Amino acid sequence: MYGFTNQSSSTTGRTISFGATYAYGPLNLAAAYSEYHDRALNLAGGLGLANFEGVALTPAAPFIADNVRNAGIGGSFQIGRVQLHAVVTQARIEDRGRSETYRAIDGGANFQITPAYMIGAGAWTTTLAGQRWTQVNVANVYALSKFT
Question: What is the pLDDT of residues 108-126, one digit of tens each?
Answer without folding.
Answer: 999 999 988 999 999 999 9
